Amino acid sequence: MLAAKILPFTSPHSKLLVKSNDFAPSFQNTVPLVKFKRNSKITCLKSSLQSIVSPEIDSDSPPAQTRVKILSEALPFIQKFRGKTIVVKYGGAAMKSEALQASVIADIVLLACVGLRIVFVHGGGPEINQWLGRLNIQPNFLNGLRVTDASTMEIVSMVLVGKVNKHLVALINKAGATAVGLSGIDGRLLIARPSPNSSQLGFVGDIATGELAGIGAEKLILLTDVAGILENREDPGSLVKQIDIKGVKKMIEDGKVAGGMIPKVNCCIRSLAQGVRTTSIIDGRLKHSLLLEILTDEGAGTMITG
Ligand SMILES: Nc1ncnc2c1ncn2[C@@H]1O[C@H](COP(=O)(O)OP(=O)(O)O)[C@@H](O)[C@H]1O
Ligand SMILES: CC(=O)N[C@@H](CCC(=O)OP(=O)(O)O)C(=O)O
């Protein structure tokens, strides 16, 4: 299941990331490594601020006074999280629209520019399914994890490492940061062992625990295509805003949390056990949900606590 060995990028210029994790199929998840040179910070911040105060950016924007007030209200949060490592898992389900991708990337770049150390991990399940479909291979899932035979693994690797990863790296670069994409295989970043259920799941593995604690992550945020954990998954209004480990395990037992949400919840549970302070599952379809989650009191989705 979830797991990974996260190795911090050691360049003195690095501000960001590394990692792969989540449903841990051996090397299925890949990680753009984003580096920010110290001397690029000001330019980067400047362009981010411009995008907040420039009236051309969004015709729905509030007046400039309101915008700068909102910006200044972010200060305590920036001070709190500056220098802290935040792991963001960008689920494939929340990647479907280009506009949303651009919004997520802009948030990542802004957060990095104000000093947060972002570890950006991506998925790409829907895109994998699309390519499997083109090759007439039927996708199969067990408790939210892909049943991965050798030919599926080939496609998974091609899509995640070759396509999705490079696409996200290009978007980050275009947004003014410098990204390097890594997969678990690079530099032995992730060492996986076969999943206990590998006789059914195939090429799916668990990575050595301790990965998030190992990089001292403060927060884990999973972006997906629902508002968060729903009490009733047919009712988008039934968002559970906060829940503890015991409560969420019960939701799995009761069948209320199912499918792709199971590995996400397990990911949060394991991360909390490893010392990550807070974990959240938030709506990647909501514009700037990452900023809402990190830079406001309200948050955006479900917070799972220890
Ligand atoms: N209780 C629940 N609350 C919200 N979503 C749930 C719940 N149980 C199952 N799900 C499903 O989990 C899905 C998210 O997992 P998944 O499709 O794997 O997303 P991603 O590609 O972002 O990893 C949701 O779209 C929803 O269909
Ligand atoms: C879920 C699972 O078994 N593994 C994913 C790996 C990529 C991922 O994490 O993709 P999502 O974020 O879109 O789920 C898959 O093969 O589809």
TrEMBL record:
Gene3D superfamilies: Acetylglutamate kinase-like (3.40.1160.10). Coiled coil: none annotated. Pfam families: AA_kinase (PF00696). Keywords: Transferase. Residues 84-189, 214-283 form the Aspartate/glutamate/uridylate kinase domain. Signal peptide: none annotated. The keyword Transferase applies. InterPro entries: AceGlu_kinase-like_sf, ArgB, Asp/Glu/Uridylate_kinase, NAGK-C. This is Aspartate/glutamate/uridylate kinase domain-containing protein. It comes from Rehmannia glutinosa.
